[in-house]
Amino acid sequence: MRQVWLAFVLVALASGQTASSGFAPFAQWQVGVRAGDAATIAAAYSTDPPPTLLVSTGVIGDIAREASFWGSLKKQGLISLEIDSIADRAVSSTVHQIGFEAGLHLQTARGPQSLYLFVQQTWALEAGHWRIISGGRSDLSRLKQPLALTDAIFSKTADAHADIAAALARAAAAHKRVLLDFGGNWCYDCHVLDMAFHRGDLAPLLRANYELVNVDVEDFNYNLDIVKQYGLTIDKGVPMLAVLDDHGKLLVSSQDGSFESARALGPDDIIRFLNAWKPS
What is the predicted pLDDT for the residue at 10? Predict the structure, then answer.
């Protein structure tokens, strides 16, 4: 399911579509979600015929179920709904397409929580009213997902050996560890992990305890001598993390593939890893 939504994101962006000035029916739908008003949400969907909505369990046309999903967020502690637009375009005078990543920010009994999902909606003008006739949503994720893979996280022109040596020198001076992040710019999960490293609850922990070095493996054919140097393989895929002490000794790695599906992790998983291997 996630691959379907990643494809939608990339195709939409590659087509050169840009967000319009705003589509009023979609804005009204957002009002209903923020208010937890299931009736307002349900009114946005076509009834005859019912909408065709793709979710992880299959195709549904149950408006009440969809309205309940969105309407229940307020009761779960929704305090803000963040919309990152991917596509917002008029297909014709009677059809409009919306694509976005929704950030659901909640205040729960266990504290603040953020969840993310991709959503696609196709609206049609029916008897003078705009209604959602098809679309779908991805599963919820605990980490924000990238809208594109355009950021250059890894550099083939960088001298990874020199970068690691410099990081070890800084780590020795500041009593830190060195965190090696093996990956490639084509790798979706590498972008997920990189975005996580910049979160407000993660960045200070990383900055205070680690010198981060991104090591480009390109198509599993680059900097493999560094991979081998630390007794690692990339059989489980990337991203792969390795923690070194300030003498360059390998302390731990995600050789088991535990970070390869970074999109399935939560911030607490990464925080737990960083806390476990930070200097004492």
Answer: 46
Domain assignment of residue 105, given as a range: 2-137
Closest to 31 (Cα-Cα) out of 48, 46, 43, 47? 43
Judge residue 132's burial from the number of C-beta atoms within 10 Å of its C-beta, 0-12 exposed, 13-18 middle, 19 or more buried: buried
How would residue 248 be classed by pLDDT, with cut points 50, 70 and 90?
very high
Please indicate, yes or no, whether residues 182 and 122 belong to a single structural domain of this protein. Answer: no
79 Cβ neighbours under 8 A, 6+ residues apart: 105, 106, 107
Amino acid 182: pLDDT:
97
Same domain? 64 vs 115: yes
Using the Cα atoms of residue 130, residue 131, residue 134 and residue 140 in order, give the sign of their dihedral. Answer: positive
Cα torsion through 255, 224, 195, 136, rounded to 10: -80
Rounded Cα distance, 224 and 232, in Å: 9
Same domain, 106 and 207: no
For 90, the enclosing helix (H) or strand (E) is strand 78-90
**Residue 119 clears pLDDT 50, i.e. is over it:** yes
CATH number at residue 80: 3.10.450.50
Q: Whole-model pTM? A: 0.87
The predicted pLDDT at position 15 comes to 53
- 9-47 pLDDT, tens per residue? 545 544 545 555 589 999 999 999 999 999 999 999 999
Residues belonging to the chain: 280
What are the tokens at 199?
A: 């979160």
Would 11 be classed as within a structural domain? Answer: yes
Residues 19 and 114 occupy one common structural domain: yes
The predicted model gives 225-253 an average pLDDT of: 93
Q: Is 110 left (phi over 0), alpha (psi -120 to 50) or beta?
A: alpha
The Cα 245–Cα 75 span in angstroms is 46
Q: Domain total for the chain? A: 2
Q: What is the mean pLDDT of residues 250-265?
A: 93
